[in-house]
Design brief:
alpha/beta, TIM Barrel, two-stranded antiparallel sheet, 42% helix
Length: 323
């Protein structure tokens, strides 16, 4: 699998990142480790997790990280893979903020323990708290970086204005700053009012332009739009949740173009959707979770798919991002 270098880092990652949100819950430990094996055997080296993954189910904490940690210890692959994890997620019961030095340090240390590693390649803050000064937040991340606990750090679900503020502070103080932004983004446009969790941040045109201008790398979650286009194509029933998010006029136009492009390049819709994310001027990596081996293998096929400039341009002209 082709690798891409994340800007302002030495992280050379697979074009696709394996999402592990279901490890230890929907997928048991054996199935999760099997998926990690297949992903690695097919050339994948970029694994995305979070300290909070699995904590919505009663029982042990940090299930996803712990399974990955067991797999790393059992296989000896630690130095062959790039681990991305996220911390300081709000309290699940009431979504109260945990963005403060004490909680950030606590989550970093626990993630290191759960993942059976001495360092985390790319560490994200899972949410933001606009009431906290960026200085307080970046100081603790930079301290962890200098201690060798994390190699680089990024932000997940941060508003553009806060990213700019944080990276301005970092530059003024000689810090590495945020090297990657993880947010909700796919080929499909999305209805903002259909997202009930208002702490999530969606890719919009202004943010996209910022990434083009700065070359800041992106990791895209919900990168397949919950299978929206594929379900439309196969006449599968769409849940009310998916319909409310993605039933837009712009997506009908994108859907028609997507079918046309998929036929032209001889690929599935999902392959084209993921390839679109990869075909940007800045390093851009879709995070994808898979239910089975067949889905995983199909997703990885998108890494070999070439879309020409005209195809990307047409999709860009049709997109509204957030409606």
């Amino acid at each position: 699998m082709k690798k891409v270098l994340l800007n302002n880092t030495q992280l050379c990652v697979s074009q696709l990142s394996l999402g592990t949100v279901n490890f230890g819950t929907v997928m048991d430990s054996k199935a999760s480790k099997h998926q990690l094996d297949i992903f690695f055997e097919l050339g994948g080296n970029f694994i995305d997790t979070a300290h909070v993954y699995g904590d919505w189910v009663p029982g042990p904490k940090g299930r996803s990280e712990k399974i990955i940690g067991e797999w790393l210890k059992e296989t000896g692959h630690r130095h062959d893979v790039i681990i991305s994890t996220k911390g300081a997620h709000p309290v699940l019961s009431d979504m109260s903020s945990r963005i403060n030095p004490v909680e950030i340090k606590k989550d970093i240390n626990e993630s290191l323990e759960y993942l059976n590693t001495d360092y985390i390649d790319l560490y994200f803050l899972h949410r933001d708290d606009s009431d906290k000064p960026v200085s307080e937040i970046l100081d603790v991340l930079e301290q962890a970086r200098q201690q060798g606990k994390i190699r680089y750090y990024g932000c997940s679900n941060w508003a553009l204005s806060r990213i700019i503020e944080a990276n301005t502070y970092a530059k003024e103080h000689g810090y590495s700053g945020f090297v990657c932004n993880q947010l909700m983004w796919s080929l499909a446009d999305i209805k903002e009012n259909a997202i009930t969790d208002k702490t999530l941040v969606l890719m919009d045109e202004e943010t996209f332009n910022y990434h083009e201008n700065t070359n800041m790398s992106v990791m895209a979650y919900t990168s397949a739009a919950k299978g929206y286009f594929t379900k439309l194509f196969t006449n599968k029933d769409l849940s009310d949740k998916i319909s409310s998010r993605y039933d837009t006029l712009s997506n009908k136009l994108i859907f028609d173009e997507l079918i046309k492009v998929a036929k032209e390049v001889g690929a599935s819709l999902i392959e084209v959707e993921l390839a679109y994310i990869m075909h940007q001027k800045f390093a851009s990596v879709p995070i994808v979770s898979f239910s089975n081996d067949e889905q995983l293998k199909q997703g990885i096929k998108s890494c070999k798919l070439m879309l020409d400039d005209e195809m990307i341009k047409t999709f860009r002209e049709l997109k509204k991002y957030v409606v």
